[in-house]
Here is the input.
Amino acid sequence: MSTYFLTGASGAVGSAIVPLLLVDPATKLRILLRARTPAHLEERFQSLCEFWRIAPENADRRRIEPLRGDAALPQFGLSAVDYARVCEDTTHVIHCAASVRMNETLDEARASAIGSAREVLTLARALQARSLLRKVEFVSTVGIAGKRQGALPERWIDEAREFHNSYEQSKAEAEQLVRHAIDTEGLPVTVHRPSMVIGDSRDGRIIHFQIFYFIAEFMSGRKTFGLYPDFGEVRLDVIPVDWVARAIVDASRSPETAGSIFHLCSGPQRSPRLNELRPILRQAFRDHGHRLPPCFTVPHRLFAALPRIGALVAPPRMRRALSTLPIYLDYLADNQGFDNRVFVARLAERSLRLPDWGEYLPVVLSYYLKAKYGPRQSP
Here is the structure.
């Protein structure tokens, strides 16, 4: 019997992990969810079960126990009774919880990333002292590279660097806590650094539409008056959520991965150039019935001024959308890559190969457009 404690079960990655864990009938789960009241907890759990397509009468549902708490609070904000129960029989910890708001202050971001990392490590120590702990999966991000140029290697990063936002910096600092625990205490932790997570490669499903989908809207030209910056050779590393979830679950069942770092990403050779993406994204929107303005490429500096111009001439709804543009422009301007050879080698050992982006992107976009805008619109 294995008992998993999972944070971030309502997020993109965590929600994709749960069904994979339930495949093993000898596995039970405790999932940490934020909720105002016990009734709100049950409401949130019901919503998740609907996403997982687990009916009330399904026996799998009884193997999932929702707990009301907050990953960044002491003892995860759990009651003393619930925390004691978690410490009694948990064998695996998967930490996916994260605040992905990129406009938080550094103190706010640290409270989430570092606070939750400390609580995960404290729990891991307690479980290890009881000889219960088998593995900890710590989900970080390739964003810990910050503005570091070149390919980010699958190792700890020691060099000083700037960051695009507080989210990246706080996750990098949280990684250092994990590194210290591995080096000095021998905690069996694997660090996973996903790139930009998108929908399932098979059907496009994902519980939340995050950064990639905002970028897709902007690159369609619908919210930028058809203007588009020339990004040259810059690539966008995206990875379907099912591949991320599968890798994390596999590592949790593989003790030999303790101490490893995996870049759960497509890598430089399988990542599309932004300039390659533009026509594909625009065609997907057209196929769904959206009218798009003509597209014009402008210098990056001029495009960066678009939010200021939009504040003067754009309608209110478009002004709100344009106000977030600088966050993504700063991120997309760097020609970065993420070395994933360790991850790819592990897939090869299991006779698996990462799909090419052209194989899954149409499915991912189709699911998004239908979920966001409904059935295909009439021209």
